[in-house]
Amino acid sequence: GAGRGGRDAAGAVEELLGREPARGGGGGGGAGAGRRARPVDPEEARRGQADFVKVRDWRGGRGEVGDLEVERVVASVPGAPRGTGGAAGGPLFPELVARMRLLEAQGELGVAGEGRLPPPGEWALSGDHLADFLRGLLAVHGALEGAVSAGSAGGGGGGPEGRHALARLEAAASLPRSVALEAALGTLGGPGPASGGSPPAEAKAYAQYLADLGRVAGGEGGDESQAACLKIVAHFFALHLMHATSFQNLLAKGSARLGLPSLSAAEGYRLAGSSGGPVGALQAAVDAAGGEVSSAEGIESVASEVRKAMQKTTVLVLPLAKPA
């Protein structure tokens, strides 16, 4: 359901930024909680159930799978057929979360140079740093909204699946963040001097990438336009997931430190009929988009872009990653 998927996603993002996930269950125990893998369920195996785990003791490579000591389950990917909405069917959001968690376990995600950054608890979260961060978010969210709009309108050259998926995202009218981010900047005051009023370089580059995707998605490029539309779905997932979890928390902490009203840009962050707060709203929108994609190839086109989307999104925190 939306609640469990949202908790899994939030926990994965917390792990990505080097903190303990703020949830229980699902992710297994910590480093000292070695446990044996549970027996293989033949019915799950028949359906393709897969658990990606971090193994504590490989027993010299000679042990049976059921005898290995598991440090934690990184991701569980249900094997039940994606049951509705065509050949691919079923909810897309949990599938993207599982892909994200697997990539994180493989060391494919995280902030560039993260090992040299101070822990998030030591970040200054000054007014200047927050201004730079907000301007970057505004640039990227604005570019994403433009790309979604361009792709959903389309030029008629691409396949309908991608355009219809983006139309579902555009219909989630509570999710765009540009207006709320502009209001947050207004609450904070003038631009941060480190950026001269412009978005940081990482945000500019990401915004340009999204604008380029939008241009191709809205063109007459046939398969190329379709592929661009599906990539945009992955970036919608990644950017909103980060904003609804860690980014919101960092902005709320920064505004409290400055004695200002909330800068979290969370106003109206809901979707009618969804549950679980902003992450639930995002899950409902992404699942609706996934319902428009009937082919396994289309679903994989979305999932395969998650790596790039998460990498580009996580570097947006760099303006904040400065010690007090």
Give your account of this protein's structure:
- 52% of the residues lie in helices and 6% in strands.
- It has 324 residues and is mostly helical.
Summed up, the helix count is 11
Question: How many strand elements?
Answer: 3
Distance between the termini: 40 Å
List low-confidence stretches: 19-49, 77-87
Mean pLDDT, to the nearest integer, reads: 76
Shape: globular
Strand order, biggest sheet?
1-3-2
Q: Kindly name the structural category.
A: mainly alpha
Biggest β-sheet strands, sense, barrel:
3 strands, antiparallel
Classify the beta-strand content into a percent band: 5-15%
Kindly state the percentage of residues in helix. Answer: 40-55%
Order of helices and strands: HEHEEHHHHHHHHH
Radius of gyration: 20 Å
In brief, what are we looking at here?
By secondary structure, this protein is mainly α. It is 52% helix and 6% strand. Mean pLDDT is 76; it is low at 19-49 and 77-87.
